[in-house]
Amino acid sequence: MLYRSENIVVTKADAFTDRIVNMYKVLNERKEFIISKQALRSGTSIGASITEGFSAQSNADFVSKLSIALKESDETLYWLRKLRAGSFISEKEYNSMEADNKEISKLLTSIIKTKKRNMEK
Fold first, then answer.
1. Dist. CA 116–CA 121, nearest whole Å
2. Residue 89 backbone class (left: φ over 0; alpha: ψ -120 to 50; beta: rest)
3. Is 65 in a helix, a strand, or coil?
4. Does residue 101 sit in helix, strand or coil?
5. CA distances from 26 to 9, 12, 32, 64, 90 (A)
6. 39-78 core/surface letters (b: 16 or more CB in 10 A; e: else)
7. Mind listing the pLDDT tens digit for each residue in 13-36?
8. Are 39 and 79 in contact (CB under 8 A)?
9. From CA 43, how far away is CA 46, in angstroms rounded?
10. Residue 2: what pLDDT?
11. pLDDT in tens, 50-108
12. What angle do CA 12, 104, 83 make, to 5 degrees?
């Protein structure tokens, strides 16, 4: 098994979490408290759920933890869209965050599918 620090999805989720935290700080300075807090919660939960997956008690538990991370990624994208719609973040900021989020989602989807396929063998 790969060490956490060598795993691409962990690395990308950690970087995304850092971006979410920094965005939250900036949005608080801009006096946006509600939607940014939702994005902070779901955005930081992605990496936390992936990290929990490394301590999974079974393959099914691993899939469950990564599935939660995928759901949190979807929710984060929703909040980012709302921040963009409210003009709290620019189109450029949104596009950059969206691209990172979608990359993590694709990685999670691939990992989940592969693990499920291997569990069926």
1. 9
2. beta
3. helix
4. helix
5. 26, 21, 9, 33, 12
6. bbebbbbbbebbebbeeeeeeeebbbbbbbbbebbebbbe
7. 999 999 999 999 999 999 999 999
8. yes
9. 6
10. 44
11. 999 989 999 999 999 999 999 999 999 999 999 999 999 999 999 999 999 999 999 99
12. 100
Instruction: Between 86 and 1, name the one with better pLDDT.
Output: 86
For the residues of 43-59, what is the DSSP string, one character each? HHHHHHHHHHHTT-SSH
Please state, in angstroms and rounded to a whole number, the distance separating the CA atoms of residues 56 and 10: 15
Helix, strand counts (H, E) of the chain: 4, 0
pTM higher than the cut 0.90:
yes
Residue 26 structure tokens: 């900036």
How far apart are alpha carbons 67 and 110 in whole angstroms?
Answer: 11
* Torsional sign, CA 61, 64, 70, 74: negative
